[in-house]
Write a structure and sequence with these properties.
Layout lengths: L11 H10 L6 H32 L8 H16 L2 H7 L8 H23 L7 H23 L12 H26 L5
Helix pairs in contact: 2-5, 2-7, 5-7, 6-7
Amino acid sequence: MSRLRTPNRHDPCRCAFETATSSGPMDTTHTSKNRLVPALISGSTAIVLNTLALKAADLVPLATAKGGLLRLLSTWFAAPLVDLGIASAWTRAGAPAPTSPVFQTGFHLVVGILMALFYAYALEPILPGTDARKGVIYAIAAWVLNAAVVLPATGEGFAGSAHLTLAGIVWFAAAHGVFFMVLALMYGILRRPSGR
């Protein structure tokens, strides 16, 4: 809330500056802080649930399109990472190989948090409608991008259809729908002022 002061004849700019820089609508630091923690909490919860849903498919067993983004980025960046010596330094450090389950799960979790931050700072403020509607819009946009760009670029066809059954495609879409809906709904709840 802005601190209101009576104008000061000796320093009229001070009152205007303090009003504009306090926790009022012009305070972007306050808004930024109000987005970060809810984004991290809702993103962490959503990506853990998404990861568990994808791991549950392995128990069925049911192949899903998980790992498509990592495979795509690996093809783009493998040669430059080798040329720069980063790949050999990574190996010497004893870090997990990109093909290992530990690396893949870690990559998945990091991407989920980055997607939550992207939602909080870029999409949520401009998407129309309720939290649920925002989640659906984000889910559909991400699914289309993955199905029509990422997976075909890795040779898996539209939505992974070159290697997956319809059940695998649907499970993958549902697991990611869980991520986006939990993210949007939980983020909305955490951002709401208490008492509302």
